[in-house]
C-alpha cells in the first residue's frame, strides 16, 4: 500500500514537472532579448499593425556585452577542455611507460633472484666438493 502511494506520488510529481513545460506560454523569456516578446492578447483591429518597441542603444550594448561574455566563457571552456585532453594524453603516456617499466622491473627482479639462486647452488656444490676432498 505504501509502495503504491510512493509510486503514485512520484509519477504525479514527474507529470507535474513535465506539464509545466508543456503548458508554458510561448517563449516569454530569452536571456538575449527581453523586450521583443509578445504574449498573443486579443487584438481588436488586425488590419492596423502596432510598431514594435525599439531598444535603447544602451540595452543593445548591454546585450552585446552579455553575448561577448558568454562567447568568452565558451572559448575559455573549450581551452580548458583542450588542456584536459592534453593532460589526459600525457597521463596515458606516462601510465603506459609506468606499466612497461613495472613489468620490466618485475622481469629483472625474477632474473636477479634466479641468478642469486644459481650462485647459492654453486656455493653449496663447492662446499660439498670440499667436504668430500678432506
Describe the structure.
With 134 residues, this protein is an all-alpha fold. Helices cover 73% and strands 0% of the residues. It is built from two helices and no strands. The chain has helices at residues 2-22, 57-133. The longest helix is centred in the C-terminal third of the chain and has 77 residues, at 57-133. The protein is elongated. The model has no long low-confidence stretch (mean pLDDT 79).
The secondary-structure class comes to: mainly alpha
Question: Count of DSSP helices?
Answer: 2
Largest sheet: none
Q: Calculate the mean pLDDT score and round it.
A: 79
Runs with pLDDT <50, length 5+? none
Bin the helical content: over 70%
Could you say which overall geometry the principal axes of the C-alpha atoms support? Answer: elongated
Strand content: under 5%
* H/E element sequence: HH
| Rg (CA only) | 39 Å
The oligomerization state is: single chain
| Beta strands, count | 0
* Terminal Cα span: 95 Å
In short:
With 134 residues, this protein is mostly helical. It contains 2 helices and no strands.
What is the topology?
Elements: H1 2-22, H2 57-133
Amino acid at each position: 500500500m505504501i509502495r503504491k502511494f510512493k509510486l503514485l506520488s512520484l509519477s504525479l510529481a514527474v507529470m507535474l514537472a513535465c506539464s509545466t513545460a508543456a503548458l508554458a506560454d510561448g517563449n516569454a523569456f530569452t536571456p538575449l532579448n527581453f523586450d521583443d516578446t509578445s504574449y498573443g492578447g486579443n487584438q481588436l483591429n488586425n488590419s492596423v499593425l502596432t510598431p514594435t518597441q525599439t531598444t535603447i542603444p544602451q540595452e543593445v550594448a548591454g546585450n552585446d556585452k552579455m553575448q561577448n561574455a558568454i562567447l568568452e566563457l565558451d572559448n575559455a571552456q573549450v581551452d580548458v577542455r583542450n588542456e584536459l585532453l592534453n593532460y589526459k594524453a600525457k597521463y596515458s603516456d606516462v601510465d603506459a611507460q609506468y606499466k612497461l617499466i613495472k613489468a620490466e622491473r618485475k622481469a629483472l627482479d625474477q632474473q636477479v633472484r634466479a641468478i642469486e639462486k644459481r650462485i647459492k647452488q654453486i656455493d653449496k656444490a663447492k662446499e660439498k666438493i670440499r667436504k668430500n676432498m678432506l
